[in-house]
Write a structure and sequence with these properties.
7-stranded mixed beta sheet; 293 residues; 33% strand; alpha+beta
Length: 293
């Protein structure tokens, strides 16, 4: 069966709609815009989205299915809605989604799905999808949609009630369900410990990044560690380590032999140690302790 040439483009924009006070200090306010963008990026990764563009106030993400794009959009709204607002500012998230066509051959011309999705991202704290996107959804997710009163960029559009709870039958695909729904499964669960810092990977925090980059969830300042060394994520198969580094990641299970993961993936189980950029030589110091349960 030929692979579908459809893609589903999500455009998310974070806007400040309150008083545009010249004295507003983003850093003093706790970087509210950046916090929302970081949450949007994590949700996109959890739903297998590919970030095509990230700009100052938003990002463009491509998904393989309409369902994953919409579930991701709903989760983005839920995750951002619980963040505190800044004084005299209201920070809102607008999301638009449109179905496009994948460019698979050199002679294929680029479509305008991204631009159309951007024009759909016009509702404060809302989601607006095109008719083409609506047609690709399963029946349970279609129940979230209501016709929008006017065309957007010449397209028939639907608003999405992302606050509504859905039965488990609405969810499919490879990713875990949004944490706002009561029917969530809880396992697998993982803890990472390095020195005095402990990270948890769960339904509330499905992805952790490790590397020298100061924005990593776990920062390791070692010459053998790459800037973006590895990513550990929660999937339906379990907790998966994805190595992105030059020197690789050594995995030493408590009950098993050492394995080197380099530019590849590995399912983590039980307890053990991770050594980033160097092999285990009998000295446990410098390793990242993990436990999956």
């Amino acid at each position: 069966m030929p692979k579908s040439r459809s893609k589903f483009v999500l455009h998310a924009t974070v806007r400040r709609t309150g008083s545009d006070d010249a004295s507003f200090d983003d850093a003093r306010a706790g970087h509210p815009m950046e916090r929302r963008l970081n949450r949007i990026e994590r949700v996109a990764a959890a739903y297998r989205g590919r970030i095509d563009l990230r700009f100052e106030d938003g990002m463009r993400v491509t998904f393989e299915t309409a369902d994953s794009a919409l579930l991701g959009a709903c989760e983005m709204q839920h995750r951002c809605a619980v963040l505190p607002q800044a004084s005299r500012q209201k920070i809102v998230l607008g999301i638009g989604i449109h179905q496009g066509v994948l460019k698979q051959r050199a002679k294929d011309t680029a479509d305008d799905a991204g631009d159309l999705a951007a024009q759909l991202a016009r509702i404060d704290d809302g989601i607006l999808i095109s008719q083409a996107m609506f047609d690709g959804l399963n029946q349970e997710l279609n129940k979230l949609a209501r016709p929008f009163g006017e065309p957007v960029a010449g397209l028939a559009a639907h608003t999405i009630d992302w606050r509504r709870e859905l039965p488990s039958g609405a969810y499919g695909g490879e990713s875990f369900w949004p944490t706002s729904m009561h029917s969530l499964p809880t396992p697998p669960y993982m803890t990472l410990q390095f020195g005095l810092k402990t990270l948890e990977i769960s339904e509330h925090h499905p992805i952790a990044t490790i590397g020298r980059d100061p924005q990593s969830d776990l920062v390791l300042n070692d010459i053998h560690v790459s800037r973006h060394h590895c990513r550990i994520e929660r999937t339906l198969k379990g907790i998966v380590l994805n190595d992105l580094s030059t020197n690789g990641t050594s995995v030493i299970p408590d009950n098993g032999s050492e394995q080197l993961v380099k530019n590849g993936s590995m399912l983590l189980k039980g307890r053990g140690l991770l050594f980033l950029g160097r092999p285990f030589k009998g000295e446990r110091r410098g390793g990242v302790r993990f436990e999956v349960f």
